[in-house]
Design goal:
Largest sheet: 3 strands, antiparallel
Shape: elongated
Order of helices and strands: EHEHHEHHEEHEEHHHHHHHHEEHHHHHH
């Protein structure tokens, strides 16, 4: 039986949001939360009944905020806003991200400041629990008045429109509801606006990026340590005393991880008096480079978890006579750290590519191109072309989306965050980074075998052997794309890092203090 999370009452974390999406945790509304939701909805109804003017309840939207809407048309207005704002284009976002949008929207609305009906939230939860996930186009949000277009598409199924994934197939919502004998809901006053105002598109891409980037950072430390071993590098630059003199948290953590990963290595011990004074920066400066990216990741994680527990609707309903129209829907608080993490993730790929290059040079006892018979064979020369191409592509993706702003709504919305683009772009950088790390891992596994019969540390030998379950040592050229794809999958599905972490735990090795 999955454990329970109480929407609106408990703190939602990145990990919990992902577990709810995977149905490892069940999200529910407890009685106190239901009472808050109902009280907020009753306050909105009182506003309508008394004819008081409140933005989005009985007025138009955006530049039409001064256009009055009659009591009779208040509900129709909410239906129309979902229709009119469904203008997204491009490919659908991943189903997992669309599901996270539903989860994060429930958390925000369940705080009880948005005036939605309890039945509306219960229907959204029904979609989550039954994996009937709306189809949401990837483009169309400027990340300011909330993610208007993607959120409108996300909630079209509530009123029987749009498309959703049902039993894994993209299907018209009307067909799904007919098959299940379920009727669309009737939106009440303000509900349509509450559904489309918010940062849940940006936020859900941030949640995925936090999870994926942590995995890449952990993998980069392990793989970097394997490359250092293969290149007869020294662990002296990871000395704790050195990093206490410049005590950035990320630097200290990476240095500690590298010390642990290299502990009791025969390879390391074999060249301790080799006379080599310094290693190249891509080996020596891993704590500084990987660590700086970890600091950026931590900042994004902290801000993402604030946003996961925030109300990003507008207006906010504090009571029937107390509403505030503000800008909590503006995506800037996430847009900036998402862009920052674009640079941070790209830099992990950049330094990884440099290590791939070092492994090919034929120095420090390794054969050139990591193969004995080169000339007839190209060895591992061409996989590094791929890392070079991916690193270059990531550089082009590092222009900060949040540096741009284009006015919308006839100037009413005159500064926007473009955070939706920041979130999508970061995940594209991470796509490339996973390939880059996989190619370094392939190369490091190949190189380390030229150090035999010497062994590395227990952790790195385990990592090497795990990869060898899927890809063998290359005696001669073959279709390396097949190897790359196999190892990339070990990075993408987190199994490489998870297996190494499990081995460490089983053997009482502390990787992260």
């Amino acid at each position: 039986m999955p454990s329970i999370f109480n929407y609106g009452s408990e703190k939602l974390t990145v990990s919990l949001a992902i577990k709810i999406g995977k149905r490892e945790v069940k999200g529910v509304l407890n009685e106190d939360t239901k009472d808050r939701i109902s009280a907020s909805q009753q306050a909105v109804q009182q506003i309508v009944d008394e004819g008081r003017t409140v933005y989005g309840v009985n007025t138009g939207f955006g530049i039409l905020a001064n256009t009055a809407i009659s009591k009779a048309d208040a509900a129709t207005l909410q239906y129309k806003i979902l229709q009119s704002h469904s203008v997204g284009v491009g490919d659908p976002i991943p189903i997992e991200v669309a599901k996270l949008m539903l989860i994060t929207k429930v958390q925000s609305l369940a705080k009880g400041f948005s005036g939605v009906q309890l039945s509306t939230l219960e229907r959204i939860i029904w979609h989550i629990e039954n994996d009937i996930i709306p189809v949401v186009p990837e483009k169309g949000s400027v990340g300011a008045s909330g993610d208007l277009a993607p959120l409108a598409h996300l909630f079209l199924p509530l009123i029987g429109l749009g498309e959703c994934y049902y039993k894994g197939v993209r299907t018209q919502t009307s067909s799904v509801l007919n098959e299940l004998n379920i009727t669309p809901i009737q939106l009440g006053p303000k509900e349509g606006l509450a559904l489309i105002n918010g940062t849940q598109f940006i936020l859900s891409f941030a949640v995925k990026a936090v999870q994926r980037m942590q995995n890449c950072l952990d993998a980069a430390d392990i793989i970097g340590a394997m490359s250092l071993e293969a290149l007869s590098g020294t662990k002296a630059p990871f000395d704790e005393r050195l990093h206490d003199l410049r005590p950035f948290n990320g630097n200290k953590l990476v240095a500690q991880r590298l010390r642990t990963l290299l502990k009791d290595s025969e390879i390391m011990q074999s060249h301790i008096d080799c006379g080599r004074v310094q290693d190249p920066y891509s080996l020596r400066c891993m704590p500084q480079v990987h660590g700086a990216s970890r600091n950026a990741w931590l900042h994004l994680k902290e801000l993402t978890e604030i946003e996961l527990n925030s109300v990003t609707d507008n207006p906010i309903i504090l009571g029937a006579d107390d509403t505030i129209s503000g800008g909590n829907f503006h995506g800037q608080p996430l847009a900036l750290p998402l862009d920052y993490c674009c640079f941070a993730a790209a830099e992990i790929g950049n330094i990884s590519d440099r290590r791939c290059y070092l492994l090919l040079e034929g120095k420090w006892g390794l054969p050139m191109l990591l193969m004995k018979d080169v000339g007839l064979n190209s060895g591992f020369m061409i996989p590094q072309y791929t890392t070079a191409a991916l690193v270059s592509e990531n550089k082009t993706l590092c222009f900060p989306s949040s540096a741009d702003s284009i006015p919308t709504s006839l100037g009413q919305e005159d500064h926007v965050s473009m955070g939706s683009i920041s979130g999508r772009k970061l995940n594209r950088v991470l796509d490339n980074l996973e390939y880059i790390l996989a190619i370094e891992l392939l190369s490091a596994c190949q190189a380390i075998e030229f150090r035999r019969p010497l062994k590395s540390s227990a952790l790195l030998e385990f990592a090497h052997d795990y990869v060898r379950e899927f890809v063998s040592f290359a005696e001669e050229d073959r279709i390396f794309a097949e190897d790359i794809n196999k190892v990339t999958e070990l990075i993408k599905d987190f199994s490489f890092v998870e297996k190494v972490n499990s081995f460490a735990l089983e053997n009482n090795i502390v990787l992260d203090n």
